[in-house]
TrEMBL record:
This is Helix-turn-helix transcriptional regulator. PANTHER family: BLL4672 PROTEIN (PTHR35010:SF2), BLL4672 PROTEIN-RELATED (PTHR35010). Residues 33-80 form the HTH cro/C1-type domain. It comes from Herbiconiux moechotypicola. Coiled coil: none annotated. Gene3D superfamilies: 3.30.450.180, lambda repressor-like DNA-binding domains. PROSITE patterns: HTH_CROC1. Pfam families: HTH_31, MLTR_LBD. SUPFAM superfamilies: lambda repressor-like DNA-binding domains (SSF47413). Signal peptide: none annotated.
Amino acid sequence: MPTKLGDFLRARRARLRAEDVGLPFDARRRVPGLRRSEVAALAGISTEYYLRLEQGREHQPSDQVMIALGRALRLDDDGVHHLTRLVRRGTPVRGQQRPSAPQEVDDSVLALLEQWENTPAVVLDACLDVLAANALASALVPGMFRQGANLLVSVVEGAPHAGDLESLWYDQAALIAAALRFHGNPDDPRYIEIVSRLCERDARFAVIWELHDVKALVSGVVHIDVPAIGWTEIPWRILNVPRSPGQLLLVFWGDAGSPARVVFDTLALRVAIARDDAVVESGLTGVAPGARDLDEAGSIV
């Protein structure tokens, strides 16, 4: 019976060529990637032992075996972390597991988000669901950073289907898919729901997911079609929220005078104007208005 561990091992060895690991090229090779025996030899274990791992029949390999397998499969630290977690299912590793119950964001973190009037910031859980976002983040990509939205779903389902933007979309979708595999708990019903939904609805995502890439969200640059401004490169950084396992703080930033900073200043002004208008409207009608749309929805790739 296929297992998540077996799927991961098979996918990773299938992506390696013999010459990638110092083995001679063989034109008669009939299987893609490395053979089980070759991975086992590179890791210094028996082929039978490796087969038991791939079939999910071995549950107590040592740390040394995990490190050796990671080296044989050319995994980085994130990949070895994921491999170890798949082997030792049910045992939290590095605090990345997502609780089953909905998470609440600490009041102090919410207050911090609101005080960052010129810095878009979002709190995500381990499945990359949005738990909270400040006004500037909501204005940056309307709809994507609303509470309850999912970062991966928003990117995949907002995908372009032709032209140069499709390549940018692919890179972002692959990045966030790898992040879900790293941060999320593969046994979490929400995790399973997200992956099943996207694989069923988008064949391109299904191909991305089957690559079994694993990468923690740390930092990078995203291309965002900002409403009424246009496409802008905006740097971002992830911080872990202290004492809130699995919660990630996504912060967008830009140096003074950079296009990103110009975008933030412009959006901050729009947010302030919208807030002032709402206060005036509330005073005139005596009824607090609902949230106003600042502009047409933007895109992110």
